[in-house]
Each structure stands twice: as structure tokens, then as C-alpha cells.
Specification:
- This protein has about 350 residues and is mainly alpha-helical.
- It has 13 helices and six strands.
- A hairpin with a 5-residue loop joins β1 and β2.
- The longest helix has about 35 residues.
- The protein is globular, with a radius of gyration of 26 Å.
- The relative contact order is 0.14.
- The mean pLDDT is about 90.
Length: about 350
């Protein structure tokens, strides 16, 4: 019995030594020698020599000088990789796609061909001040409670703005608590719908948005204020505008511009997507460096075409560009974006 037990223990010990020790050590050494960059995460260094990201993981870019990656259901968090798994019937999916389209989509035909629809969305939205769309913000919040709540949760400043509103609208909050006795101490997200109902009455034709101001000492501070134009309005109300303007002839956009990848971390976009963003990127860089926009556009297009490659030489899909690498190439060429 003891002899059999001894043999089993030796077998388990030897297996653990090989599987948990020798094999991982061999793979680590092999990776460090044969492809050290990939084995260490395909890290990318910035102009100052510091790590700015990975070629394998997407990250968000907010400035107009930079190309934008695909939308991410994981908020570009490598630890939370995954998809939304929203079905086609889920309005949250439609709202997210509409939110991307609002600030970028253009007319395809007619007298406004090539012009963005953003200004028309703002003009339609502002009718709330006069006629035609009574309390449009309230309609939006009442019809899509989850979107109103998502707006409150999207940024700490949004929740703080609702909290400040609650302090000056105690009767409305008290009535809400009376109607919802299970929530005697409502958080800002709980009050999202009645906040927008009240806001719509107090500020017709406007929407709460972050606004930057220059202080006396030259610094920039951000505050939440009612606005009547901007990307927040274009994003949040594009879908409602589109439903009232179903006959508008709009350009189609590349699918990967509005749809997230399965992982939410895809670092590449199609060359078609990049070219769709080219006008915005080139115009902003031309403004920053004070150069001819047409010349800057040609230079950036050349950068895109040189960096684009198709998987398997074109056998497995269209040409792709790595967003981080392209943006770093632009920064190296034109310097840091304007503040």
C-alpha cells in the first residue's frame, strides 16, 4: 500500500514540476528570445519614451486631431473585455448607434449634399423654445427612462448637477418619494426622469451639458449649464430627429464606426472608417499648425495608406489601420495638439 502511495505522490509531484514549472519557464524563455515585443504585451512608447498603450488593446481618443477607435462595450477596459449582447430590438443599441451618428453623419444628396446634419438637429431641437416640439427633453426622458438614467451615471458631474437641482425642487422630489415609498432616500439616478421633466419646463430648447470657461487667471474650468447646441444635443436627439425626417437622404457610414467589436477592445479600424474621419482630423491639424488644409489632408491620407494592411494579404478582410499607431504618427509629424 505504502509503495503504491509513494509512486502516486512521485507521479503527482513530477507532473506538477513539469506542468507548473518547466513548461511555463520554457514558454517564457521562448517568447522572450523569439518575439519579445509580443510576449511583453506589444507595448507602444510615446515621444518621451514612456509606455502609452498597446498595439493589441484599443483606447479612447477625445481630441478632434485624432482618429477614433470602434465603440467599446467595455469602455476600453482590458479587465472587462466583452460585448453588450444587446439584441436588435433593444433600444439601447439603437440609441448608442444614433449617438455616434449624430455629430458625424452628412447629407448624401439634395441641396445640402456633403453638409453635416448636426446644425439641422440643433435647429429642430430649438423649436422647443417656440413651437412644434413641446418639452422635447421630457419626451425623450419619459420614452426612454434607461437613457435618462444612463446620462446621470455617465459622469460624476451629471449626478452632482441633479443633486443640486433636487435641493431647489424639494416639492417635486417629495412627490416622487410619495409615489415611490420603497425609495425614501433617492439617489440622483433615481430622479433622472423627473429631473429632465422639470429641466424641460425651466429651459425649453436646451439640454444640460459641460461648458468650459476661461477663468481670470487663464485656467479653464468646466461647469454644467443649459445649452442649445453642441454634440450632446446632436448625439442624444439624432434618433428622434431622424424619425421625423425619414425622407432625409443621408450618407452611409462604415459599420465598424458605430458597432462595437466582440471584445470591445479591437485596436484596429477599417481604412474606410479612417478615411471617413479624415476630413475632421485634417481640418483640426491644419488649424493647429496653421497650414493649408488640403495639403495636410493629403499628408494624413498618405500616412493612412502607408500604415494600412489587410489580414492574410487581403484573404481575410479589408485593409485595417491601428488607431494608436496612426495617432502617434500624426503627433510625431505635427507635434502636440492645441490645448
Amino acid at each position: 500500500m505504502s509503495r503504491h502511495l509513494s509512486m502516486c505522490l512521485k507521479l503527482v509531484g513530477g507532473s506538477m514540476f513539469i506542468i507548473c514549472g518547466v513548461y511555463p519557464l520554457f514558454l517564457w524563455c521562448f517568447g522572450q528570445v523569439v518575439f519579445p515585443n509580443k510576449a511583453n504585451g506589444s507595448l507602444v512608447l510615446g515621444p518621451d519614451g514612456k509606455v502609452v498603450g498597446s498595439r493589441l488593446i484599443a483606447q479612447p481618443f477625445t481630441k478632434d486631431e485624432y482618429f477614433q477607435p470602434r465603440p467599446s462595450a467595455a469602455s476600453y477596459n482590458g479587465a472587462a473585455s466583452g460585448a453588450t449582447n444587446w439584441s436588435a430590438s433593444n433600444y439601447s443599441l439603437r440609441a448608442r448607434v444614433a449617438g455616434v451618428l449624430g455629430p458625424i453623419v452628412k447629407y448624401r444628396g439634395g441641396p445640402k449634399a456633403g453638409q453635416p446634419v448636426g446644425s439641422d438637429i440643433e435647429a429642430w431641437f430649438q423649436q422647443d423654445q417656440y413651437q412644434g416640439n413641446p418639452h422635447i427633453v421630457a419626451q425623450w426622458a419619459d420614452a426612454h427612462n434607461s437613457l435618462a438614467q444612463a446620462w446621470v451615471k455617465a459622469d460624476a458631474s451629471h449626478g452632482a448637477y441633479v443633486d443640486e437641482w433636487a435641493k431647489t425642487h424639494a416639492p417635486e422630489v417629495a412627490q416622487w418619494i410619495k409615489d415611490n415609498p420603497d425609495t425614501p432616500k433617492p439617489a440622483a439616478v433615481d430622479l433622472a426622469v423627473i429631473f429632465f421633466d422639470s429641466f424641460s419646463k425651466d429651459h425649453p430648447g436646451q439640454f444640460p451639458s459641460a461648458v468650459q470657461h476661461q477663468t481670470a487667471d487663464g485656467k479653464t474650468e468646466t461647469a454644467m449649464e443649459p445649452v442649445k447646441e453642441g454634440t450632446d444635443i446632436q448625439s442624444n436627439f439624432f434618433d428622434m430627429w431622424r424619425q421625423e425626417h425619414a425622407d432625409a437622404n443621408l450618407e452611409e457610414v462604415p459599420a465598424d464606426m458605430v458597432m462595437a467589436s466582440g471584445s470591445g477592445l479591437d485596436p484596429h479600424i477599417t481604412l474606410e472608417n479612417a478615411l471617413f474621419q479624415l476630413d475632421r482630423v485634417a481640418a483640426q491639424w491644419a488649424k493647429d499648425v496653421n497650414r493649408d488644409p488640403a495639403q495636410v489632408r493629403r499628408e494624413i491620407q498618405s500616412v493612412l495608406e502607408q500604415s494600412a494592411s489587410a489580414p492574410g494579404g487581403g484573404l481575410f478582410g479589408p485593409k485595417l489601420v491601428n488607431v494608436l499607431e496612426v495617432n502617434l504618427a500624426l503627433r510625431a509629424r505635427y507635434g502636440a495638439p492645441a490645448a
